[in-house]
Amino acid sequence: MSPTNRHRGTLTGLIVLGAAAFNTTGALASASENSLGVSYVKADLSQPASAESLYKRIQFAARTVCHEPNPHELSRFANYRLCVEKAVDAAVTQVDATALTALHRSKTQRSAAS
After folding, report:
1. If 0-12 CB within 10 Å is exposed, 13-18 middle and 19+ buried, where does residue 65 land?
2. Where along the chain do its domains lie?
């Protein structure tokens, strides 16, 4: 922990987003090729702006590890979207911060009327 973090009394965390990259046969790619760490300061997550910033970084990391295909490749694009969704869900759960969880739920809630 850095002296600055120790002085502020914060805990620094690291999320590692992993993605199971599937080839056409459904075989899993190496996990080490499909992971990315996202650092954060847990104490800062009580602030909405910090939670929003971390959420955007989690989404970016998820899109990176899931390797976005050409959107015209519908079957691969559907797998990509599912991969991103699962990676973001797992990261938010791992952080376990109320503001981040609430933000994630507000972004992913589906209308009951749909």
Report:
1. buried
2. 3-103
Which tokens hold the place of 108?
Answer: 């992913």
Question: What digits encode the pLDDT tens for the residues 95-109?
Answer: 999 999 999 999 988
pTM of the model: 0.72
d(CA 85, CA 79) in angstroms, rounded, equals 10
The amino acid occupying position 113 is: A
Cα(84)–Cα(68) distance, rounded to whole angstroms?
9
Phi, psi of 30, rounded to the nearest 5 degrees: -60, 135
- Please report where in the chains the tokens 């996202």 appear, as a residue: 38
The HSE-up count of residue 105 (CA atoms within 13 Å, CB side) is 8
